[in-house]
Amino acid sequence: MGDPKGFLRLHRAGFEKRDPKERVHDYRQYFTLPDDQTLRDQGARCMDCGVPFCHEGCPLGNRIPDWNDLVYRDRWQDALVQLHATNNFPEFTGLICPAPCESACVLDINDDPVTIEQIELAIASRGFDEGWIEPEPPDRRTGKSVGVVGSGPAGLAVAAQLNKLGHKVTVYERDEAPGGLLRFGVPDAKLEKWIIDRRVKLLEDEGIDFACDTDVGVTVEAQELRRRHDAVVVAIGSRVHRDLETPGRELENVHFAMDYLYQRNRWVARSEGRPARETPPERQISAAGRRVVVVGGGDTGMDCVSNALREGAEDVLMLDVYPPLPKKGRMESTPWPLPPKRTPTTYALDEGGDRRFGTEVIELLGRDGAVSAVRGWRVEGTSSRDLKPVPGTEFEERAELVLIAIGFSHPEHEGAVEELGLDLDGRGNVKAPVYGTKVDGVFACGDARTGQSLVVTAIAEGRRCARVVDQYLGGTGEARRISAQGMFAYEDGDPNSLRHQAEIARTVTVGEAFWSGPRDER
């Protein structure tokens, strides 16, 4: 820790955000990084805690105090080495991760947390600007091949890690370009798509093949992938929407949020001259000139608010079942170091629209077959699981477009999951306790295995899954080298045992936290 009193004398300085009145008229990134000196000062606020809870808060186990200190010391390239040791895509997480690490920062107990996400993005941006991030193809090939189904953050991470270990990887994506929800679910205002293209180009230069417009289970049989490859990884995300089960759901102009976001992201791509699929006129979803009601108050709902405002909506109202935020401190359900479920404001609410807490939609009203209003009432409870209506609080709001943003239930079962004969858990996710499914040589990771989660969790899932796949292929993966150093032992002496596979998966971040040297010296 370079400045032991930094957290006492320096205050938090976040991203520099563009004027909401200006940025709502374009799709460019809505914020910028501060200057290097400000970033160094923010690194100095890190307290070098005896127990860095930010490690626990981050699913990747990022070495946050290490690279905070390196930035403070102006050692940016060393900070990049530390950052890439645990995170394949810091330029993604630095932009769109909700930063559970900051919620776990010890400073957040009674002060503003360290700007961890901002420093992470600054390190990655500096790495690309200085040319430090270059393709690093493996020195040798193992002769084994892996097919990865899905190119979201989990699929990209497992592909990147397996490629580094020398396996030949092909990523199959049903949409027209890689990225999954990073590309089609996140607005350009938060993540401009050239950033994804830059990373994909890097992965291609390292030897990974991408087969887009390839829908496994539709345009190519899942069993064909098993014949082509020595192992197959299912990383298709959690894409079955949770529906709004209320009278009037069948009315026109009631849509799932992600269907709307997919269309808007493709519209932006075409407007910038990038190839993207066109939506038939009869299926187009438009907020222009309409009163929009968004059901659900999470990040997806906020992205709908942002897009609707940019499209020229008359007004946007967000209805959120969560209780109002306390005026001071945290909600009782998410004490430190847990991340909050909602924040006081977001980039979208800064731009316009209104959010109403503690409300539940009970009916959609229509006129001439199209939605015209929503009926609801006030509710009390800590989450959607224990809501109780408040008598006498019913209300009705005009609505000409309703977007349902209440999350996802599980991955799609039709297609790859069904054709491969994979088991499902009680929630409908692919059953793969230690990433391996019941089908020999078929693995699963990311939201397809765990249910919907964060981008940072998906990357961590991909990294851990790669360890298990590599061991299945007979490789000498990093986790087994860690084992040789005595960090864990085979309980039964069998390196193929379930216990051993679980240890490989578990130590993906633990092991890396003890090593920062070149991979071939481990």
Give short descriptive properties of this protein.
21 helices; five-stranded parallel beta sheet; globular; Fumarate Reductase Iron-sulfur Protein, Chain B, domain 2; alpha/beta; 14% strand; FAD/NAD(P)-binding domain; 522 residues
Written account of the structure:
This protein is of the alpha/beta class. It has helices at 6-9, 20-23, 36-44, 53-57, 64-72, 76-84, 90-96, 100-103, 116-129, 153-164, 181-184, 193-205, 222-228, 257-271, 299-311, 347-351, 416-420, 447-450, 455-472, 478-484, 498-512; strands spanning 16-17, 31-32, 145-149, 168-172, 209-211, 231-234, 240-241, 254-256, 291-295, 315-319, 354-356, 359-367, 370-380, 388-389, 395-398, 401-404, 408-410, 442-444. The chain folds into three domains: 6-129, Fumarate Reductase Iron-sulfur Protein, Chain B, domain 2; 145-239 and 410-475, FAD/NAD(P)-binding domain (3-Layer(bba) Sandwich); 270-406, FAD/NAD(P)-binding domain, CATH 3.50.50.60. It contains 21 helices and 18 strands. The strands form five sheets. A five-stranded parallel β-sheet has the order 5-4-3-6-18, sandwiched between helices. Strands 8-16-9-10-11 form a five-stranded parallel β-sheet. Strands 12, 13, 14 and 15 form a four-stranded antiparallel β-sheet that branches. The radius of gyration is 23 Å and the shape is globular. The two termini are 27 Å apart.
